Amino acid sequence: MSAADKTLWYKAWTETRWFFRIGIVFLTASAFALYFGYPDDYATRFPNGALAVGAEQVRALLRDGHAYIWLSWFGTSLLLGLSFLSLALASTGLVRSPEGGPAPGVTYVLSMPVSRRKLAGVRVATGFLELTAAAILPTLLVCALAPTQGASFPVGEGLTHALLALCGVSALYALFVLLSAVLGELSKGVIGGTLLFLYGMFTFLASGVRRFSVFRLMTGDAFFLRGEIPWLGVLACLAFAATLTYASIRIVEGRDY
Amino acid sequence: MTSELAIETHELRKSFGAKEAVRGLTLAVPRGSICGFLGGNGAGKTTTLKMLMGMTRVGGGEGRALGLRIADPTLSTEIRRRTGFVSEDKLFPWSITVGELLSFTRAFYPRWRPDVAERYLHTFQLPLGASAGRLSKGMRSRLALLLALARGAELLLLDEPTEGLDPSMIEETLKALVALVAEQETTVFFASHQLAHVEQIADRVCIIDRGRAVLSDSLDELKASYRRVRLVFDEEPPEGAFAGARRDGRTLSLLAARNVDEVVARAKAMSARSVDVQPVTLKDIFLESAKGA
Amino acid sequence: MFFPPNPSSGVPVYRQLVDQVRHAVETGALRPGEQLPGTRKVAEDLVMNPNTVAKAYQELEHQGVIEMRKGLGAFIALHGRKGGDLVQKAQPVLRGAMDRMVEIGLSEEQMRRLFESEVIRLRQEPPKGNHDQ
Known about the structure:
- The complex is a heterotrimer of chains A (257), B (293) and C (133).
- Chain A is built from 10 helices and no strands.
- Chain A has 257 residues and is an all-alpha fold.
- In chain A, helix 3 (65-89) runs antiparallel to helix 7.
- The longest helix of chain A is centred in the N-terminal third of the chain and has 34 residues, at 3-36.
- Chain B has 293 residues and is α/β, with parallel strands linked by helices.
- Chain B has 10 helices and 14 strands.
- Chain B has a 6-stranded mixed sheet, sandwiched between helices.
- In chain B, a hairpin with a 2-residue loop joins strand 4 and strand 5 (68-69).
- The longest helix of chain B is centred in the middle third of the chain and has 18 residues, at 167-184.
- Chain B is elongated.
- The chains are: A mainly alpha (257), B alpha/beta (293), C mainly alpha (133).
- Chains B and C meet through helix 6, helix 7, helix 8, helix 9 and strand 14 of B and helix 2, helix 3 and helix 5 of C.
């Protein structure tokens, strides 16, 4: 990698590191919190269901720590944490200011002998790598801490769930990258956050739709309940993510700054 | 292959929606010259500079910088490898220090001049640890210029490089530009409202008005061919006797371009009482050209 | 070594430099064989365009006031002060005329404008009687 490339990656890191750090801290704290208030009677938890899973299913499941960890972590904490982190990290880097012109510093970066494709590509990839770390590392921690409360969650299973969550959140991430490319950072935050909230509520409340929810995919319930990997959902999310990412990069390539 | 011209455009155009910012701009800037790019607000200077740098897409016509076509994305990247730029806003990525910005920029320019960077860090009094986002406008202008100068560039495109600077720093800036051209055959093309600065160091001038070039010439030739002429007659002279003249009772004053002798001869033929000829400044030429187009 | 030229006077900047050098040669401030600073140094010291300095040096060389020695720079020509003699002859003439104009009551600005007008007149009606180039 040339010095110039390394510098681009480093710059993307400096632009995202605070959100990443906050996300990691939040998830790590959640991992600890999971075991801190560990219940003696599982059935008292989740009276209304976990975020992406229906209430009846929950009650049927809560027989052991294994299920409890699944619902608390993959069904709630990781789901929320990754989703909001993806919103915070999503950007092409070549964004507009609220008034419509280029954001501070974008003009400067554009005066460099680097293609916009590379600038945007590196930035999007950096955010994605950070999401990957945020999905995997706290999950490993959760698996490692399980025995402290006499439960267990195998690492292999945990990692599979983490990767499923990552596939799902990549679709959200790409959507937010597109919002950022088209609208600018502020609008991306407001609209993206609203979308996330509405989508979450909708798929939580309307049981018929839950089947198609990205959130459900992220919890990996097919894998948990039946040991199946939802390949169709995974492919759909990745294809969606790739398409929107490509579109976002093309948009910033064609724009006047 | 090096072209004789550092910049050439032919009928360059750009519109933003209904607004035409550049409406057929044709100019040529020879290598090694310092060319002042003058025009009122909204005349199209910034848009032109951005098109040359590949930040704004060319709407029509064509342009070349250092012989390379500006509309081609690959060539445009090459142009930027050999060009230093100071933008109108002079803003930097917010949370970055001066030192970090230097390291960041340096990585992209194989011809980076650390000696130049060092020299101007000192001359422009820029602290390495300061956050670029919190500098005053004047300091940001100086930082932007330093970054442009240290790139080892063949061409400098500057948008109001002396903005926000106090007189001593202005002098240092002009000196730096002159030194660069003297040392390295660099071409400087700078947009400015400060006619005095342009007059001091430029050997060429290009005036743009409402998106078109109204003048593009060597400064010496421009000043040699323009004269301010004041004629006083015994009686009120007829309207339209001299094109573009301003009448004030019995006095006519006009800016003669390349035809001073003819004007004087005609005035004598009309029995003018007094014929007064004076040299012009760049300001006179600029204000006059802004009227005409 | 030179005065900074005035960019907004009517005289082209390169010519102001030429005049400065010629004046220095004529009054003996610069002697034959003496070296002039390089164009780059002059441009940087006076904060003016290097091409303009180069143009001035070219003109001086063309007029025979200086000679450029390859690799070494610009030197005052050795062949004597011919041009200087002419100027020395004319100086008292002009000085006398100007003293008279001051007596008449003209200001500096008026004198300058009058001179410009007369130069233009000369251009259109060359005087009878020859004059050296």
